[in-house]
């Protein structure tokens, strides 16, 4: 096997085709559009509350579960399955459903306009009731690609990771492709609970203390094992405290530290094993700009890892995330 690999010969085009097939690029919607991502990347979406972190996950999920095309209509989706681990237990599934239906309706509207511009008579082309049936079939197929698990503490989170291999194998056997995106909303949700556990006296002195550090010493290897068998893009949100730069003391905790970014700072509290595991990091926060944008809050997005010398503005509308002009 090694000799055949050494003696193998392929052109650059063949090599790129093979690599992109094994690790396809995932072009995600705003504000994650600046950097092409591939499976096995670990993307951390950092920001205070509220800063539209969960909304970003929802819009990425909609783009992933939508097909590229359906019955001749272009929907521009990635046609990938998504696994959502909700550690905050606050996901609004009706918001996901609403955005998905709006995306389907908008794509159908644009398709009719395009057909009309090309001279096709679309008034009696497809009966209205048939369009509704087709939309419902498409909606059902899309929602089949979205899998949701809620965790109420670190024990349930660890248990969910332990059984994911079986779940992903089942998904792969059903559709032949498997899950491509793993979402974790909010990776630091149980920080204070774990910190409280670590301060309690341990019954067995030989037993390892339960703490945030010990939890992630198990979480990170479990995710690594999953990625080896089921290559996925991991998107994890993390709630932090963001402040305009001023003189204040950092946390007493051994893992907490201040991270300077732009005109402010945020407090990093995750263990180093998780921080070194992350390959990409983006900071999102509400803008201080007081201008009115149809009563919408304007948010800022800035890539920290890799560092990009630009900041994107976006707003959250009824149909999803829109770039601010």
UniProtKB/TrEMBL annotation:
Matches recorded under InterPro entries: P-loop_NTPase, XRCC2
A biological process from GO: double-strand break repair via homologous recombination
GO terms for cellular component: Rad51B-Rad51C-Rad51D-XRCC2 complex; replication fork
Superkingdom to which the source organism belongs: Eukaryota
Protein name: DNA repair protein XRCC2 homolog
């Amino acid at each position: 096997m090694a000799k055949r690999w050494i003696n193998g010969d392929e052109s650059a085009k063949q090599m790129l085709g093979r690599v992109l097939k094994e690790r396809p690029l995932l072009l995600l919607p705003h504000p994650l559009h600046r950097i092409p991502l591939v499976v096995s990347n670990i993307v951390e979406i950092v920001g205070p509350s509220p800063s539209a972190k969960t909304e970003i996950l929802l819009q990425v999920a909609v783009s992933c579960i939508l097909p590229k095309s359906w019955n001749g209509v272009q929907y521009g989706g990635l046609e990938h399955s998504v696994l959502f681990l909700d550690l905050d237990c606050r996901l609004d599934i009706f918001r996901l459903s609403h955005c998905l239906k709006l995306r389907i309706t908008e794509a159908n509207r644009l398709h009719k306009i395009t057909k009309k511009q090309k001279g096709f008579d679309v008034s009696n082309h497809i009966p209205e009731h048939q369009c509704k049936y087709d939309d419902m079939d498409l909606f059902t197929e899309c929602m089949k690609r979205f899998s949701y698990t809620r965790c109420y503490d670190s024990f349930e989170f660890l248990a969910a990771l332990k059984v994911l291999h079986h779940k992903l194998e089942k998904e792969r056997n059903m559709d032949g492709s498997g899950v491509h995106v793993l979402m974790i909303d909010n990776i630091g949700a149980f920080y204070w609970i774990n910190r409280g556990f670590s301060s309690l006296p341990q019954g067995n002195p030989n037993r390892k203390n339960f703490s945030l550090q010990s939890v992630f010493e198990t979480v990170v290897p479990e995710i690594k094992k999953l990625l080896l068998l089921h290559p996925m893009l991991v998107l994890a949100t993390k709630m932090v405290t963001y402040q305009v730069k001023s003189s204040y003391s950092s946390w007493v905790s051994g893992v907490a530290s201040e991270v300077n970014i732009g005109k402010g700072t945020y407090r990093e509290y995750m263990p180093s094993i998780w921080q070194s595991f992350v390959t990409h990091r983006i900071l999102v926060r509400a803008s201080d700009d007081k201008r009115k944008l149809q009563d919408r809050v304007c948010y800022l997005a800035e890539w920290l890892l890799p560092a990009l010398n630009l900041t994107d503005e976006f707003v959250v509308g009824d149909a999803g995330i829109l770039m601010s002009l």
